[in-house]
Amino acid sequence: MKIAVAGGTGTAGHHVVTTARARGHEVVVLTRSTGIDLTTGAGLAKALAGVDVVVDAASVQTQSARASREFFGSITTNLLTAEKDAGVAHHIALSIVGSDLAPFGYYAGKALQEQRVEAGPIPWTILRATQFHEFARQIFGQFKVGPIALVPKMFSQPVAAREVGERLVDLAERAPSGHAPELAGPEVLRMSDMVRAYASAAGTPARILELPLPGGFGKALRDGTVTARAGAELGVQTYAQWVEQVRRARS
Ligand SMILES: NC(=O)c1ccc[n+]([C@@H]2O[C@H](COP(=O)([O-])OP(=O)(O)OC[C@H]3O[C@@H](n4cnc5c(N)ncnc54)[C@H](OP(=O)(O)O)[C@@H]3O)[C@@H](O)[C@H]2O)c1
Known about the structure:
Blueprint: E1 2-6, H1 13-22, E2 26-30, H2 44-47, E3 53-56, H3 65-86, E4 90-96, H4 106-119, E5 124-129, H5 135-142, E6 144-145, E7 148-152, E8 155-156, H6 161-172, E9 178-179, E10 183-184, E11 189-190, H7 191-201, E12 207-211, H8 215-222, E13 233-234, H9 239-250
Parallel strand pairs: 1-2, 1-3, 3-4, 4-5, 5-9, 7-12, 10-13
Antiparallel strand pairs: 6-7, 8-11
The structure holds NADP nicotinamide-adenine-dinucleotide phosphate.
Residues 7, 9-13, 31-33, 36-39, 57-60, 94, 96, 110, 129, 131-132, 135 line the site of NADP nicotinamide-adenine-dinucleotide phosphate (NAP).
């Protein structure tokens, strides 16, 4: 099978690429570093020639609802249009648990992405996952003031990005199925504890300041909206096991 992976160098996307290649699939990576800008569609027509399935794991770093909607709206429309022209049979989008219930900030773009995929011309599957274990590293790097790391007050049920990548390849090997069962990690944790444990394992211990974010988005992060709902499938690797991998990789 020929699989194109939008965002194939990213945290989840690179696991899609390595898993698909390990299973014998031909893989095309769609990122700016491979010459494809999904926001303009430049280079897509050529890249999608002969592709059977597109897995969209691209992302943008923003908390702005407008910027997120612009990014996910444009990349989804550009992908679906090019897929129709190329005769792609299956579009798979990676989304986030809770983005339908709290379509604010970054999640506003994810909600728009889901709507465009559902209404689009290509048979589809959407996988909603909870935050990856690696999200703690993304947060730690993003909001630092001197020695203090700012962390949103949030409960998360983190899942290994590797397991998300493997599930996306499972889905690519099957027929389009609409909304797949959500994928979450094995336990609910407080984000400030996750970031503290990551920082220590990475050899950069830091003071953590937990901040409640305002508005509907902040409430959703605090009240369990972004943790697994009934019917979710649970990943295997615990956050503590992932942190131990980070610690070992350093020593
Ligand atoms: N992070 C989480 O905890 C989490 C949890 C659940 C779901 N998700 C979803 O999973 C998906 C992947 O997230 P991630 O954290 O793995 O992303 P990421 O690590 O930030 O990677 C983003 C990818 O998108 C590519 N990209 C960005 N702008 C592009 C553009 N204009 N044209 C082409 N490629 C572009 C990047 O490559 P270049 O920079 O080379 O272009 C990179 O490969 C997102 O849809 C996100 O909403 C994330």
